[in-house]
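Postdoc handover notes: sequence design on the structure in folder B. Input tokens:
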């Protein structure tokens, strides 16, 4: 029995289209990887943060006098992060992106080092 040429052509076209679509989509593993040069941020490191459906690293860095903050992946420096939780720190790391199911694409700082930072200078009126 020979497969009619129309069916064969349809199968070949379906495979070709599927291969093209899979190559045009970004890899899911690349969504969780750092994508920039190392950068340094200073603020208060907070732990115990939760996201919808548990979609969060559990850590954020809040800039001085700011609300919110940036999500931080501390997996490379866990003990340092635990020791410095709640303190003013300087984090060096690379910005990356996480693609969460519920929250979508979220910017994440992947920490390479965390060190305690001096307290922020108090604001003084100009000329004093």
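Designed sequence:
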């Amino acid at each position: 029995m020979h497969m009619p040429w129309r069916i064969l052509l349809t199968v070949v076209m379906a495979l070709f289209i599927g291969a093209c679509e899979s190559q045009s989509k970004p890899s899911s593993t690349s969504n969780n990887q750092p994508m920039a040069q190392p950068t340094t941020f200073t603020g208060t490191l907070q732990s115990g943060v939760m996201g919808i459906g548990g979609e969060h690293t559990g850590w954020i860095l809040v800039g001085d006098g700011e609300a919110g903050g940036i999500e931080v992946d501390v997996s490379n420096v866990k003990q340092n992060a635990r020791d410095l939780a709640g303190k003013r720190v300087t984090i060096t790391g690379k910005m990356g992106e996480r693609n969460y199911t519920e929250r979508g694409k979220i910017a994440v700082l992947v920490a390479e080092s965390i060190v305690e930072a001096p307290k922020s200078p108090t604001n003084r009126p100009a000329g004093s």
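Context for whoever picks this up: Residues 29 and 71 are 18 Å apart (CA to CA). Don't rerun without checking with the PI first.
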